[in-house]
Amino acid sequence: MAHGYPRFPSAGTRLCAVFGQPIRHSASPALHNAAFEAAGLDWAYVACEVEPRFLGEALVGAGRMGFCGLNLTVPHKLEALEWVDVLDESARAWGAVNTVVFEVEVDGEWFPVGLREPDGRPIRSKGYNTDADALIRALKEDLRVEPRSARVLLLGAGGAARSAALRLADEGVLELWLVNRTLSKVEELAAEISNRYPAVTVEVGYPESDVEIILNGTSLGLKSGDPLPLDTDRFPLERADGVYDMIYRPAVTPLLTAAQAAGCQTANGLGMLLYQGAAAWELWTGRPAPLEVMREALGREVYGGPR
Ligand SMILES: NC(=O)c1ccc[n+]([C@@H]2O[C@H](COP(=O)([O-])OP(=O)(O)OC[C@H]3O[C@@H](n4cnc5c(N)ncnc54)[C@H](OP(=O)(O)O)[C@@H]3O)[C@@H](O)[C@H]2O)c1
Predict the structure, then answer these.
(1) In the annotation, is 77 catalytic?
(2) From the CA of 115, how far away is ligand 1's center (Å)?
(3) Fewest CB atoms less than 10 Å from the CB: which of 19, 44, 154, 179?
(4) Which CATH fold would you assign to the domain 2-129+271-303?
């Protein structure tokens, strides 16, 4: 067995998890367990289906059970802002929590539980956002577009879309067009961006001009039979250079199929998953993430082989 990594968790195994609903599509366990194995760490990562109404209890419970950290996915990223004990600057700036680090207090200082055993000392949960930076890196690498100075149509206003919008505004995007099923959420988001980033042109609705990027931050496309997340009568895909879908399973969503047919550059959310996961792993373990091991594990999990 590589690096003496145990095949099954033992009584001493440190635990991390992802909470979401639905969660069975998640590639995060493959990503993180491969990295633990490569680093020779007796850690394990599991996926837990957590109903929104139980998020607070589940967060507290994981801390009480000695978990080192969590990822949060659909639909918990916004609600978690209210439930974690403290927010890192990243969660405050990008307005959503996708990573939790449990910390233990030792002599008045807080350390990740992964680095110091709790031993009955006070525990707190700290919320981070590793999605926002991961998205920017994935857009540059996988879609080969420079978000700075781009015109972007962003679909959605949930946890992932909200942090994407704020991070894109911070990056210096030229124009941001926001579309979401619930209009009030996208109006609030547009107002927040106008207030914090007055140099960015932000509008609610479909663009009048062509755009460099369409970014899907809705969960439409996760389930088979989902409709497209945008109205192509109002904004034909031919008017975009590139389409990025944050969804990575299915690897090719109906949106990406339609975008390829329209001649757009396309990429799914695997690169974003990789980079947000690597950043979370480093926060939990205090070690540099084995990025290539993680990339390969994701390729195997989602495509059945490296890509
Ligand atoms: N690749 C990655 O690393 C990564 C990271 C983060 C998220 N994601 C993906 O991004 C997506 C969103 O995640 P999230 O955490 O932001 O979820 P969320 O907070 O639950 O937000 C869901 C979004 O989808 C919209 N939506 C849901 N059902 C819809 C429907 N039937 N019709 C129209 N719109 C609908 C919601 O609109 P309302 O506001 O109207 O409810 C909201 O804008 C998920 O697919 C997730 O897997 C991927």
Answers:
(1) yes
(2) 33
(3) 44
(4) Rossmann fold (3.40.50)
